[in-house]
Amino acid sequence: MQAMVNRTEKARIRLFGKERPYSFNLVKLPTFVKSGDYAGIQLADIVAAAITHAVQRRFKGELDPEGWLSITRPAILGDCIVPESKPPQADSLEGFVGIGILSELVERSVRQDDLFEGMPEYIAGLHHEYPRYLESAKKKLPDSPSVS
């Protein structure tokens, strides 16, 4: 990720028949911040929450009377990642890996570590550990003793 800080050249790549940016220019490495300290982050949180709510309603077959989706449509890229309509399931590979990635990013953010360094290897490790996780999840824990 450090390679993208103060980068002046713009690399592009053709993917799925469409030319896309492959590089970008960062002022500094990204980190998570407290939204209460930054008005711009608070605004982004509000807009993201409103759009997520509208998308979830659309998945349920409801209308979008506030028009959030139509207002934001011009700003959404064709290959945008849309929120899932259901929470991730830890017993699926995608859910296990997604939950692992989110947990790792939160821990790195708290430690103020680089969010991207070593992530491909970390994600490969999650894929490798998934079968072992499934086996351990199948084992039933003993019933808790009742307290009276």
List the helices and strands and how they pair.
Blueprint: E1 12-15, E2 18-21, H1 39-59, H2 68-72, H3 93-111, H4 119-138
Antiparallel strand pairs: 1-2
Helix pairs in contact: 3-4
Mean pLDDT: 78
Question: What is the general shape?
Answer: globular
Give the low-confidence spans: none
Strand content: 5-15%
Strand adjacency order, main sheet: 1-2
Kindly provide the radius of gyration, computed on alpha-carbon positions and rounded to a whole number of angstroms: 20 Å
What structural category arises from helix and sheet content?
mainly alpha
The total of helices stands at 4
In sequence order, what are the helices and strands, one letter per element? EEHHHH
Largest sheet report: 2 strands, antiparallel
The N- to C-terminal Cα distance equals 56 Å
What is the strand tally?
2
Percent helix = 40-55%
In short:
With 148 residues, the chain is mainly alpha-helical.
Please supply descriptive tags for the structure shown above.
148 residues, mainly alpha, two-stranded antiparallel sheet
Task: Write up what this structure looks like.
- With 148 residues, this protein is mainly alpha-helical.
- Among the domains are: 50 residues; 52 residues, no CATH class.
- Helices cover 44% and strands 5% of the residues.
- The chain contains 4 helices and 2 strands; from the N terminus they run ββαααα.
- It has a two-stranded antiparallel ribbon.
- The termini are far apart.
- 1% of the residues are buried.
- The model has no long low-confidence stretch (mean pLDDT 78).
